[in-house]
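sanity check this fold:
=====
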Amino acid sequence: MSETIELTDDTFEDEVLKSNKPVIVDFWAPWCSPCRLVSPVVEELATDYPDKLKVGKLNVDDNSKIASQYGIMSIPSILFFKDGKLVDQVIGAVPKSYLKEKVDKILG
């Protein structure tokens, strides 16, 4: 069973951009109600794809450098990275099936 990792401005490069597998990053904040809705769904993806995917969460209140770098204006925002590059993104709370489609496309 895979777990989500807490990302920070300092760990983002090593954990996401230098990862040897695709990474989903959930940009969120504790005060965000839609973020609380999507959080369990994102965590389920870590369990569903334990050896194929890395799943991280980045608190935008505590890590504004990375959020700003990727132009995060609305949360939740879920960004999909492969080979260190941003390949897709979803803004807002969406169903798990929608996120799974994105992941399956990235995994090929």
User: Anything to note?
Assistant: The longest helix spans residues 33-48. Residues 5-103 form a domain with the Glutaredoxin fold (CATH 3.40.30.10).
